[in-house]
Amino acid sequence: MDEIRIFSPATIANVSCGFDVLGLCLDSVGDEMVVTKSAEKGIRIKQIIGAGLPLAAEKNVAGVAALALTEALDPEYGFEITIYKNIKAGSGIGSSAASAAGAVFAINHLLGSPLSNKELVPFAMQGEKLASGSAHADNVAPALLGGFTLIRSYEPLDIIKIDAPNELYATVIHPQIELKTMDARSVLRENITLKKATIQCGNIAGLISGLYTNDYDLIGRSLHDELVEPVRYILIPKFKEIKAAAMKAGALGGGISGSGPSVFALSRGVETAQKAAQAMAAVLEGTGIPFELHVSPINPTGIKIL
Amino acid sequence: MDEIRIFSPATIANVSCGFDVLGLCLDSVGDEMVVTKSAEKGIRIKQIIGAGLPLAAEKNVAGVAALALTEALDPEYGFEITIYKNIKAGSGIGSSAASAAGAVFAINHLLGSPLSNKELVPFAMQGEKLASGSAHADNVAPALLGGFTLIRSYEPLDIIKIDAPNELYATVIHPQIELKTMDARSVLRENITLKKATIQCGNIAGLISGLYTNDYDLIGRSLHDELVEPVRYILIPKFKEIKAAAMKAGALGGGISGSGPSVFALSRGVETAQKAAQAMAAVLEGTGIPFELHVSPINPTGIKIL
C-alpha cells in the first residue's frame, strides 16, 4: 500500500471530573488526511485545505509527530501528507491532536503497522508539544484508541482504554471566540484544598465505575469538576447558561471541552443529545457569537481508514 | 426470629489512592455480635467481651448506631447487644465501624429487613461520628456491603459497590502503638497542589478500572497515594520498610490502612499475600513493637449471619 486516506476524529479532553487524565473520542466530526509514500525520505506537508497552518514539517503538528515516528522507525522512504481540516483550530476539541494522531497512524499503517495504536501515542504527543507547549495525551490517546481513555500516569506513560456505553452521545457547542490554551491554563490555581481533591477523586471514580457498568445515572452524577471549571468557566461566554440548558434538556452532565471554549454535554440516546444541542444553541443565538454544533456517538475505535 | 448472631468484618479504608472515598471488606478478621429482641424498648449493651468499652448505649458506637436506627424505625420492642470484640480499637481496620455496622445490620434483620444494607449506612455512620468526630462511611459501607465501596459523594450520600477480583488478597500488619485518628488527621495538609490532585485522580481511576477488569497489574500500578501517605507515614514505625518488604515479596501495592497504624498490602493469590505477611512481620520483629498479622481474601458480601 502506497497511499492511505483516513478520518481522524475530534476529541473531548478532561471530561469534567477527569481534568488532565481523561479524554473521549467523537465520531461525527474530524479531519481527513491523505498520506502517500514517496521515494524521497522525510516528511512533506503537501497541502492543508480548510486552515491556514504552516506547511513546514517541523512547524506543523502533523509534521512534528510524523518526524518523531520516522526518526524512531527509520523507514526507507518518505511521506507526503495532505490534510483536509474540518476541526477548527482553538476549538477545544482536539484539532491539533487529530492532525498529530492521524499522521502517525497513517505512516505506521503504510509501514505495515509495526507499532500498536497505543505505542503511537508518545509520537503523536510531540505534535501536541508543538501546539501547546505541553506533550499532553488526553486528546491524542482517544483519537488513536477510541472510547474513553484514562492517562493513569505520564511517568511512565500508562494509558487505559475504557469502552463507552452504547447509548452515550456527546453534544458539543463551539462558541467561535479566541481562547488560547495558555490563557486557559493561566487561570488555574496552583494550590487547591485537600477536600476539593477528595471530592474530585470520588467523582472520577464514580464516572469510571459508571462507564464499566453502563450506569448512565451514575455517569451523570459524577460529571462535576471541583478543580478547574469553577475558575475557568468565566472565560467562556454564557457557560453556566449553556450547561444549565443542556441539563434542562435531559443531558446527564457536561462541562468545558478540553481547555475550551467548546462546551460539551453527555446524554443517553441521540434524541436527548439533539435536544441538548438545540437548547445549548438557543443560549448563544442572539448573542452575536457565531458557533458550531456537533452531536456524536462515542467513537469506539478512533481513527478510521476510508 | 428473636436472636441473631453475626460476624462483622474488619475493613480497610482509604486503600492508598482512595483517601476518604474508598474502602474494602476483610473476611478473616472481625467481631461477633449477638443481638436479642427484648420486650422493653430501647438499646442495652449487655456485655462486651475482649475490650474495655463503655456499656451505656449513648456512649457506645454500636449503641449510638442502634439508637439512630430504632429512632427511625420505631419498633415495638427493644434490643440487647453482646459484642465479642476481636478487632482491636485504634488499629486502623475499622473496629468501631464493625460494631456500628453490626448493630444496625442485626436489628434490621430482626425486624424483617425493612431497609437494604445500603440504606443502613447512614445509621452506622452515627457510630463513627461518636468514635472519631466525623460521620465517615469508608469503613461502615464496606462492612455492610462487602467488596470495595466507593463513597462518590457525601452530600448527598452516594455509595457504589465494586466487586473485587477473585484472587485479590489483603495482608494487614497492626503495629500495636497508639495512634489517635485525630492525630493522624492533624498531620494532613489542608492545601495541596493541583498537580498532585491530578496524579491522585489518575491513580484512583486506574484502580477502579483494574477492579472492573480484573487487571491485577493495573491495580498494583495504581496503588500510589500522593496526598496523605507522604505526610502521614512518619507516624507509623518502619512504614517504608514494611511496605518495601511487602512489595519485594511480590505484593501488588499497599499503604496505610485507614488512618493507621495498620499497614496493608494487596496481593494476587493467597500464597503471595502470606509471603508479604512474613516479610512485613520480619521488619517489626526485633523492634520490640508487638504486632498482629492478618491475611484475608476480600469479603464479597460483608456482614454474615452465623
Automatic annotation (TrEMBL), chains A, B:
Ranges of residues in domain GHMP kinase N-terminal: 65-147
Record-listed E.C. numbers: 2.7.1.39
Biological pathway: Amino-acid biosynthesis; L-threonine biosynthesis; L-threonine from L-aspartate: step 4/5
Cellular compartments annotated: Cytoplasm
Keywords: Amino-acid biosynthesis, ATP-binding, Cytoplasm, Kinase, Nucleotide-binding, Threonine biosynthesis, Transferase
The UniProt record lists the keyword Glycoprotein: no
The keyword ATP-binding is assigned to this record: yes
One term of GO molecular function: homoserine kinase activity
Residue ranges occupied by any GHMP kinase C-terminal domain in the UniProt entry: 208-284
Record InterPro entries: GHMP_kinase_C_dom (IPR013750), GHMP_kinase_C_sf (IPR036554), GHMP_kinase_N_dom (IPR006204), Homoserine_kinase (IPR000870), Ribosomal_Su5_D2-typ_SF (IPR020568), Ribsml_uS5_D2-typ_fold_subgr (IPR014721)
Reaction(s) this enzyme catalyzes, per UniProt: L-homoserine + ATP = O-phospho-L-homoserine + ADP + H(+)
Pfam family, one: GHMP_kinases_C
HAMAP family attached to this UniProt entry: Homoser_kinase
Function field: Catalyzes the ATP-dependent phosphorylation of L-homoserine to L-homoserine phosphate.
Family listed: Belongs to the GHMP kinase family. Homoserine kinase subfamily.
Name of the featured protein: Homoserine kinase
Gene: thrB
